[in-house]
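Exercise: predict the fold of this chain.
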Amino acid sequence: MDIYKSSLKNKVLAFLIQPYPYYYSRKILWIISGLLLIMSFFFNYFFEPFEVNIPEHKMDFLWISFIHAIIPILVLLLLSLYILVSELDENWTIGKEFLFVFFFMLLIGIAQFLIRDIIYNNPNNWSFKYLYEEVRNTFLIGTLFTLILVPLNFNRLNYKNIKNALILNASHGLLTPIINSKISIKTNLKNENLQFNINSLLFVRADGNYVELFLKEEKVNKIIKRITMKELELVLKPYSNIVKIHRSYLVNIYHIKNVFGNAQGYKLQLNDFDETIPVSRNMIANFNTKMKNC
């Protein structure tokens, strides 16, 4: 029995550390917010999932349902803003997703409790009983959806990206490097200008107003230059083998050794380089096209 419990615990922990897409930024955040607003409103208004005491209402139930639906949106925007500022989205996992949803539901329950005086004419609005009730009701609804949707979405994305990665691995060995070409990089400081063979470039990583260029000569060397990623992209634009795969990464696809798929996207293993580098979810389509056309 102890061995079974230990094995189950290890499987759960292994599942929780799996990469998972971060959905709470940019355009997709607004899509999720809109869907959440619509679903919350119709669920509250038409199904009335919890006991409704009409004599206590200060306004029509339509407006009460709308207020209850808008609260999750405000909480979601505040939480996602904090994570973007903290840059936690780079290494998002299933465990972090569950933790995010837990605090999301907890804050929704607290917020629903704090607005009770606006909605309900009840002298006990500020009691611990109603705080518990609002938090409990939020978790009753949210937990069910979370435990079903997150694993299903993980399995869908994981299977899709692993399958596509295998297809890319089968074809990338056919890529032929372009003719050797010298390229010059002008930085903000003249004495830091750089010239190198384009075929020696493995990848580029952005770090604020600096970039790290990884060049393969006798060994892999990292060179740091004061130039922005956007400026460097313009210089490297003529070379179709240099592909943007992430907001902070460019890669030379001729140096890709293996592509690994997961629910978050791809991880790339390069020749003579130990670390893997990420392909973000919104860059996958462009990366697939470049790999197939080069």
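Check your answer against the key: The chain has two domains: 2-157, 173-293.
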